[in-house]
Amino acid sequence: MMAISDHDAYIVAAPEKFQPSLQRLRTILGHVLPDADEMVAYNMPGFMIDGTVVASYAAFSRQCGLYLQAEALSGHAEEIAAAGLKATKTGITFTPSRPIPEDLVERLVRASRTAAGV
């Protein structure tokens, strides 16, 4: 994927099968973080408040990812596992057939904001 300058361009350049999932995440993140600025860093779109990235997302060849502050993920590890999803220290991977439930995304993003102290 070439260097991307904004969220719209990123979503359009992503594999077509992931575009609805990415747009869904963008909408949820924008709703939960209305005072955040959209940004792109390391060729990945995200949401920043006061210079701190609170949440970002990406598409890969076989899955998508939601990236947050590590404390947000560790604090919701049981919910993530119960949803049948896999998490790393800073992210959750998912596919269109097994998306992250919207209410879990909202809780994770709020927890990430709190962990970021913004």
What does this entry look like structurally?
This protein has a 6-stranded antiparallel beta sheet. It is globular. The protein starts with 6 loop residues before the first helix and ends with a helix. The protein has 118 residues and is of the alpha+beta class. It is 41% helix and 25% strand. The chain contains 5 helices and 6 strands; from the N terminus they run ααββββααββα. The longest helix has 15 residues, at 102-116. The model has no long low-confidence stretch (mean pLDDT 95).
Topology:
Blueprint: H1 7-13, H2 19-32, E1 37-41, E2 44-49, E3 52-59, E4 64-68, H3 70-75, H4 77-82, E5 86-87, E6 91-94, H5 102-116
Antiparallel strand pairs: 1-2, 2-3, 3-4, 4-6, 5-6
Helix pairs in contact: 2-5
Give the gist of this structure.
It is built from 5 helices and 6 strands.
